Amino acid sequence: MWQTVALFHQRDYFILQPYELFIGLRYTRAKRRNHFISFISLISMLGMGLGVMALIVVLSVMNGFQKEIRARMLGASPHLEVVADGGRMEDWQPILDKVAQNPQVLAAAPYVAGQGMLSFGQSVQGVMVRGIDPLRETAITELANKVKIGRLDSLRSTEFGIVLGSDLARALGVRMGEKVMLIAPQGSITPAGMMPRLKQFRVVGIFEIGMAPYDNSLALINIVDAQKLFQMGDAVTGISTKLRDIDKAPDVAGELQRQLPQGLYANDWTHQNSNYFSAVKMEKKMMFIILSLIVAVAAFNIVSTLVMAVTDKQADIAILRTLGASPASIMKIFIVQGVVIGLIGTLMGSVGGILLALNLNVVVPFIEHLFGVQFLAKDVYYISELPSDLRYHEVILVSGLSFLISLIATLYPSYRASKTQPAEALRYE
């Protein structure tokens, strides 16, 4: 007995003694007297695990949507553009050479952009017209791979061919080979006043990107035809580029801006779509905060579990105190119990979240087939499958936060246990 007392007195406030670990683990599973406490411990573990798993899966799905939409955006638009005041760049060839010399630029090409109206039969649609060099455009965007009917290289100069977005072609009711009337705002002066320029174009292709701003209102023509239509002469609207690393686009834009003459501006894709990506970033933060409440609820379960365990183990605590255990040792015993619950729940949730996020493309179709539902209908949503992009640094962040919350949740019940007086606890035993 005195050896035991001496063992209890040889304590360290910062080092966990073996008996503290053993008793804490033993209390985690109450086998003899109170099975309800062990049941609550199991519920706390499952609650923590579900919270962590939900947080990891939701963050992965939001990352997947962001990555998918960004890929679709950049598949139809350049990573960086150099434009001029007034939308007219006269001496553009030296600018093109200077931009192409940047080590981060893979390809560069001039383009002409303007607004117009397309007319076919009784249908009229406003469009964004983009004049491109088909050969150079293939090295900059994925438009050539998005053409479902026809080919992008069918846009030959002086032949006045046009490639339309799928929704735009559907709205006009036009098919391959038919001719549409393109009305440009740049007009001609006649005795009757200013008259808009009209030109017939033959449909030589239909593309589908999967995003409304492009499929609904984008029309592609040859850059030479665009210069004639918009009366640009040899001038262009700007220069589009493709970069080696799209994440370095703001740095490349800043570097080019310092080299460009006055009146020219370099705009990268993050600036052009800043409102969308800011909204996605804010939504991701809010979802993280909201779903963290699930973990907080599980932490409250840990608090209730430990409070009941302290009440149930009053006699045991008193006996340990009479044998020489210090209040710090009692506190560490119940901290071990709560940490074990939080740690097991966090590990279960992390493993489950990683497995579910990596196999979401299999799990979701199985659930849809099992219940006969479709979560993302193709005729309603542009992305008909749940994409997933698991990032392990976010898994570490979620797991670390959950474990920290569970650790904090153990402090009050453990402190309450350490204040138990042996005489009071054993009075009615």
Mean pLDDT across residues? 82
The profile of the biggest β sheet is: 6 strands, mixed, barrel
Query: What is the radius of gyration?
Result: 34 Å
Given the structure, what is the number of helices? 18
The chain-level structural class is alpha+beta
Instruction: Report the end-to-end length measured between terminal Cα atoms.
Output: 22 Å
Side by side, the strands of the main sheet go 2-3-8-5-7-6
Low-pLDDT stretches: 1-14
Q: Please tally the β strands and state the result.
A: 10
Helix and strand run:
HHHEHEEHHEEHEEHEHEHEHHHHHHHH
Q: Approximately how much helix is present in the residues?
A: 40-55%
- Report the sheet-strand fraction: 15-25%
Label the overall shape: elongated
Draw up the topology in text.
Blueprint lengths: L1 H8 L8 H11 L6 H42 L3 E5 L8 H8 L4 E16 L2 E10 L1 H4 L5 H4 E4 L10 E5 H7 L6 E12 L2 E15 L4 H4 L2 E5 H7 L8 E6 L5 H11 L4 E5 H4 L1 H39 L1 H9 L4 H32 L1 H12 L20 H18 L1 H8 L3 H4 L4
Parallel strand pairs: 3-8, 5-7
Antiparallel strand pairs: 1-9, 1-10, 2-3, 2-6, 2-9, 4-7, 5-8, 6-7
Helix pairs in contact: 2-14, 3-12, 3-14, 3-16, 12-14, 12-16, 12-17, 14-16, 14-17
